[in-house]
Amino acid sequence: MTAPALPCGNPAAFLWVRRGLPLAAMAASLLAALLHPAGRGWWILGAAASFGVAWPTFKRGEAYLQARAALLRFDGAVVRLLRPLARALKREDGWLLSFCAWNNQRVAECFAGRRAQRTLLLLPHCIQLAHCRADILADLENCYACGLCSVEDVLKGTLERHWEVTIHNRSHKAYRAARELRPDLIVAVSCPDRLLKGLTRLPEVPAFVLPLTLPHGWCVDTRFDVEALQAAMETFAEPRRPANVRMLEREGIA
Predict the structure, then answer these.
(1) What is the pTM of this model?
(2) CA distances (Å), 235 to each of 1, 119, 241, in order?
């Protein structure tokens, strides 16, 4: 059976700003150096500086992982700097997701041909129905498996494939859990704003991120692409022997 395709997203907007503009500035500086010999040294210096800004976007593999913390701090600053403009143009989520897609693309390249020995799946509590009484924060297996939200799909993956999952109702709790567990890779689901914060606050841990959709507004009965999550876990997580367990149908959902 063919595994689902890994969805990295479209990084074009962010990459155009992060790499395209510096390279355009470099080309313009080199052209100016040819046309204005008197100030050639300054133009060449400007071209070198512009190339220095663009160069980190070409790093791949181990070189990228080693420089990831510094790169994400710089990239995050670029995203925050242009976020007001994106908001004014009504493209804020698209801008944030473009940055997330660029992150996903590089992380996927780093793990091409190998898997993470320990993958942590971080999920927000709002994927559970707001009126559901199952206490999944205490234990995911408290899920009633009613099929009305995506928690059942996560539970199946946890039971069948031994996914390591944490569900939190506050971002700082998720960050703390990730630091304590020290995984090789994080697969995180959240809204675009929280994904940006997570990537920049935990730059030391590679993370593949998936966005929520908000059909009922912020933090209420949110949805996400379950097939994309399954594809990410199957691609990155080291396979584990399935446990001899089965899901139990429970009653009690409001």
Answers:
(1) 0.85
(2) 14, 11, 16
